[in-house]
Write a structure and sequence with these properties.
Chain lengths: ~475, ~130
């Protein structure tokens, strides 16, 4: 190409051979450049075979030095190249390559055809064809460089994409790892939650048991008091029935006498009737104490009933006192009541309030007993005073003692469950916390404490009427 | 005639004693009086100085206990005839008994009262 075209067969042949080499080089380059082996493997194999055939033809034609139809072959090769590039036209560098190759091939083909068909015309315009071909070659080289750059850019982009893909893969892997961890953690948390729920159920049942045992403990405190309280009416029942037998004997004796004292007989009968009434009354007293005890040990019905707070206070004050007395025989305390008779009946849950009262009374007696044991001041009289008042339509029960008193830091804790100042095993630490619950939650009332160490304590229960 | 003061916070004690000692009362052997508390008993004693011979007192009473009453009696009524005091309690424990004796009780009885024994004791005193 870069020489003057002659019509002599050998120069012609040389030209053809050169063109063929260029074509072969182009095919080789295109295959390498476009990586056809991987992109279009089937076509690539065809191209490879074609290339080998082509090479052998070129060698053959060089060897035999004959005007072999090489032109046809490389024209065909050009078409193959164009087709190859066309096949992967989606690729940016392939498109650029197509733009690079197309004019070159077109002018090569046209000029060859014109040289063959119109040799004179071609010869006359030899310079023109030369420059066209030259221009096409520059075009080819120029665009090849552009395509190469594009390819490099493409490779860079591909590398970046590959890197991104790799990063994505890593992220994905990490994500999966995290998800696995999350699932594992979730399972663990679920398991812990189930364990906690189980523990909660156990705690609730333990709490119920503890409340029951507190009731039983307070019942234990009560038993001695109850025994004492029952003993008194029973003594009366026994005594009055015995006396009644004596009275009847006397009456029978009187009836058989010749001179009956009718006045005495009438008196004896009146006494008998009175005694039977007393037996009845004291029997009732005993059974009401037993009833109270049963009521105390029973689970609260939660049912409000119109209740005489004053009699409840008196009853449980005695029970609490005798309960402590039974445990410690040397203990003695003054206790008195100052009850407001205008209080009337108050709607409350008797079992619950009696539990509160018993607890407050027992605590008060315990406090005075402790102070007595510590050796109170000269002339110290352990005293517990219970008073009831009706203030602003509210029932106010005050339990005051002159016992040890409560220190301020202890005062903050006395309503907490399980807090106790008693030695281990003596108190459950639930008495006041239960009392607080009963008064505040059960009756919408208040339970307050005023206390001074060495002077005594005062617990004030307020119940809305 | 023996004067007896019974001190107990239980009101029915009065009726019981009156009936238990009906024969002795009728035959004017005993004269029974009653007080419902230690305070009442002391007031009674103030009004019947040198009259009272025997006091039967419960120990467990609201307000002034039997022991305190006993202490008062021994402190305030020293002029003879100093009353004979018998303490009655539901708790027949040795401690209470010891305390009663230390405070100057003449005798110690446990509830439920055995009236036969009590009568015997009173007759011995009379």
């Amino acid at each position: 190409m870069g020489h003057t075209a002659k019509l002599k067969p050998d120069s012609m042949n040389q030209d053809e051979i050169f063109s063929s080499f260029i074509t072969l080089a182009i095919i080789w380059q295109v295959r390498r450049f476009l990586d056809t082996r991987n992109r279009i493997p089937q076509w690539d194999r065809m191209l490879q075979r074609f290339w080998i055939v082509n090479v052998s033809f070129v060698i053959l034609s060089t060897a035999i030095d004959e005007d072999f139809p090489l032109r046809l072959i490389w024209l065909f090769a050009l078409a193959a190249i164009t087709y190859t590039v066309w096949l992967i036209k989606d690729n940016q560098s392939a498109r650029t390559l197509l733009i690079a190759l197309a004019p070159f091939m077109f002018f090569m083909a046209i000029s060859k055809i014109i040289q063959d068909v119109f040799p004179h015309f071609a010869k006359a315009h030899d310079d023109f064809f030369e420059s066209i071909n030259g221009f096409a070659l520059f075009w080819l080289i120029g665009f090849f460089i552009v395509a190469n750059r594009q390819k490099k850019a493409q490779v860079k982009i591909d590398e970046e994409r590959a890197l991104e893909a790799e990063q994505r893969r890593v992220i994905e892997a990490k994500k999966q790892e995290l998800e696995y961890l999350v699932a594992e953690r979730t399972a663990e948390i679920t398991r812990q939650k189930e364990e906690l729920e189980l523990a909660l159920v156990e705690l609730k049942s333990t709490q119920t048991q503890l409340i029951q045992s507190e009731k039983m403990a307070s019942l234990g405190e009560l038993t001695a008091g109850i025994a004492h309280e029952i003993q008194n009416p029973l003594n009366f029942v026994n005594n009055f029935s015995e006396v009644s037998i004596e009275l009847i004997d006397e009456l029978v004796d009187e009836q058989v006498k010749p001179h009956r004292d009718t006045e005495l007989e009438a008196e004896l009968l009146t006494d008998l009737k009175q005694n039977l009434q007393k037996i009845n009354y004291h029997g009732g007293r005993a059974s009401s104490i037993v009833k109270g005890m049963l009521q105390h040990s029973r689970t609260s019905t939660g049912q409000r009933e119109p209740t005489d707070i004053n009699s409840l206070c008196e009853e449980y004050l005695r029970l609490a006192y005798h309960g402590l007395r039974a445990k410690d025989k040397s203990f003695n305390a003054l206790f008195s009541t100052d009850l407001d008779s205008s209080l009337g009946l108050v709607s409350l849950i008797p079992q619950d309030i009696s539990r509160v009262l018993l607890n407050l009374f027992t605590n008060a007696f315990y406090a005075v007993q402790q102070r007595q044991k510590q050796g109170g001041p000269l002339g110290y009289h352990p005293t517990v005073i219970v008073s009831t008042r009706c203030v602003n339509k509210e029932a106010v029960i005050t339990v005051a003692d002159n016992g040890t008193g409560i220190a301020d830091d202890v005062k903050q804790k006395i309503f907490q469950p399980f807090f106790t100042t008693k030695p281990t095993g003596e108190g459950t630490g639930l008495g006041l916390s239960l009392a607080y619950e009963i008064i505040t939650k059960g009756h919408n009332g208040t339970l307050e404490v005023e206390s001074k160490v060495g002077e005594g304590s005062k617990f004030i229960v307020t119940l809305p009427g | 005639m023996m004067k007896i003061l019974v001190v107990d916070d239980e009101l029915d004690v009065k009726d019981l004693f009156l009936q238990r000692f009906r024969r002795e009362i009728r035959s004017a052997q005993f004269q029974l009086d009653f007080a419902n508390s230690g305070e009442e008993a002391l007031a009674y004693l103030e009004g019947h100085k040198s009259e009272v011979i025997l006091i039967l007192s419960d120990i467990n009473m609201p307000g002034m206990s039997g022991f305190e009453l006993l202490r008062h009696i021994r402190a305030d009524f020293k002029t003879p005839p100093s009353p004979v005091v018998m303490m009655i309690t539901a708790y027949g424990d040795p401690d209470s008994q010891k305390q009663a004796v230390e405070l100057g009780a003449n005798d110690f009885l446990t509830k439920p009262l055995d009236f036969t024994v009590l009568k015997q004791k009173l007759h011995d005193l009379a």
